[in-house]
Amino acid sequence: MAEPIRERDREQVRRLHAEGKSRNAIARAIGRSASTVSKIAADEGLAFSGGARVAAATEARRADSAARRELLADEALDGALRQVEQAGGAESARDARDHATAARALTEVHARVAELARASGTGSKGGSMLDRLADALLGPPGGDGQGV
Q: pTM (2 decimals)?
C-alpha cells in the first residue's frame, strides 16, 4: 500500500514548485513518485506546464530559423548574380545557357525562401532591390515563372 501524503510532503512540493523545480525534480528531492507529486500539485492548484521556459525556447528557435531563412535567401540570390555575371562572359552558348539555368534555379530558391519568410511574418515585405531582381528574373510571386 502506498504511503499516505503528509503535510510535510505538501509543504515541500509547494516550496520546490515556487523555486521553479520540475515535477520529476521534486519527486526525486522528496523521495516520492512523480504521480504523487502530480496529485499534491493538483490539490494545491499548482501546474507543471513549463510555461515561460518553453515559450522563451520556442521564440528563440523561431528567431534563429528566421535569421537562417534570411541568410539562405541572400546567399541564393548572391549565387544567382554570380551566375548571371558568368553567363555574360561565357565562351559558348552552352556555357551561357548553363549559367542562366543555374541563375534561375538559385533565384527560385531565393523567391521560395523569401516567400516563406514573408508568409511567416519574419521576412522583408518584398520591396528590396534583390526582391525586384528576383521578380524580374522569375516574374512576380504567383506568376507562371517564365521570367528567364
A: 0.47
